[in-house]
Design a protein that fits this description.
ten-stranded mixed sheet; about 260 residues; 15 strands
C-alpha cells in the first residue's frame, strides 16, 4: 500500500531539517560535501516516490506545502491546466514568486514537486550545460526548481510524454546574481537567463537548454517566463554567451 503523499513529504521535510542542523565538530568543507550528497539522496527518494505514486491505481489527488517544498498530484484531462505556485513571499524570503502551469494534451496523472530552497540539495554539485557537443559552466539562479513527472492514463504506447504536456515556468521578481567562479577563469562574461532540465551524470548536474524556450523577460530581467516540454527537474540558469578574456588561456567566444 502506497503511503499518502502528505505523510511521506512531511517525514522527508523533518529529515531535511535535522540534516540542516549545524555540525560544529566537522570542518565546513567536509560538512558541505556530505550534506549535499545526503540531500541529493533524499531528492532521489522523492523522485522514486513520485514515480510510485503515478503508477499506483487508482490515481490519488494530493497537495502538500511547507517552507521547503510544495507538491501536487492530480489527474488532468486533455487540454486542461493545473497550477503550482510557491507560497506568498515574506520579508525573509524576498519578493520573488514562482508559478508552474502544466497543460496536458492527453489524459495524464501528473506529479509536481516544487523545491523552494534548491541550494540545499545542489550544495557541492558541479553544474554544466551541454551546447554544440561541448559543455559550458552555468549558474543556477537563486529561485525554486520543480520536478515534473507524468503517466499517460489512456494508452502508454501513444505519443512520448515529452509531446503530451508542456509547462510554463514563471519566475517573477527574482533578480539575477552571478558570482565570479574561480573554476571558470574568466572575465567580462556576458550572461543570459535560460531555463533547462537537469540530469545528474556522475557528480555533474548537466542541464539541457533545448527543453525550454524563453517566452518573455520583463521588469529589468527580474521576471522570466519559459515554455518547457516533458518531464524532469526544471530550473532557471545564468548561461555565458560571450567571453572576452580568459586568464591563462587565449580569448574565445561561447555561442
Amino acid at each position: 500500500m502506497l503511503v499518502d503523499a502528505e505523510m511521506f513529504l512531511c517525514i522527508v521535510v523533518q529529515v531535511m531539517r535535522k540534516m540542516d542542523a549545524p555540525r560544529p565538530t566537522v570542518s565546513h568543507r567536509v560538512c558541505i560535501k556530505a550534506f549535499g550528497r545526503d540531500m541529493w539522496e533524499l531528492y532521489d527518494l522523492i523522485k522514486l516516490y513520485i514515480k510510485s505514486s503515478l503508477e499506483y491505481h487508482p490515481p490519488r489527488t494530493s497537495n502538500f506545502s511547507s517552507l521547503e517544498m510544495t507538491a501536487r498530484f492530480e489527474t488532468v484531462n486533455p487540454y486542461e491546466n493545473i497550477m503550482l505556485e510557491s507560497p506568498s513571499p515574506s520579508e525573509d524570503q524576498g519578493a520573488g514568486s514562482f508559478r508552474v502551469e502544466v497543460r496536458a494534451m492527453r489524459k495524464l496523472y501528473i506529479g509536481a514537486v516544487m523545491y523552494l530552497q534548491p541550494g540545499n540539495f545542489l550544495m557541492g554539485v558541479t553544474m554544466q550545460a551541454r551546447r554544440n557537443l561541448s559543455n559550458i559552466p552555468v549558474q543556477l539562479v537563486d529561485t525554486p526548481v520543480v520536478e515534473l513527472k507524468a503517466v499517460n492514463l489512456v494508452n502508454q504506447v501513444l505519443s512520448p510524454l515529452n509531446q503530451t504536456f508542456i509547462s510554463h515556468l514563471s519566475f517573477m521578481g527574482y533578480p539575477a546574481h552571478t558570482q565570479a567562479s574561480s573554476d571558470n577563469n574568466t572575465e567580462n562574461i556576458t550572461w543570459v537567463r535560460k531555463c533547462g532540465v537537469g540530469t545528474l551524470e556522475n557528480t555533474i548536474l548537466m542541464w539541457d537548454l533545448s527543453a525550454c524556450t524563453v517566452e518573455s523577460q520583463e521588469g529589468g530581467q527580474d521576471t522570466i517566463i519559459c515554455e518547457c516540454q516533458g518531464q524532469g527537474l526544471f530550473g532557471q540558469l545564468m548561461v555565458p554567451t560571450h567571453v572576452t578574456q580568459v586568464r591563462r588561456a587565449s580569448s574565445f567566444v561561447i555561442r
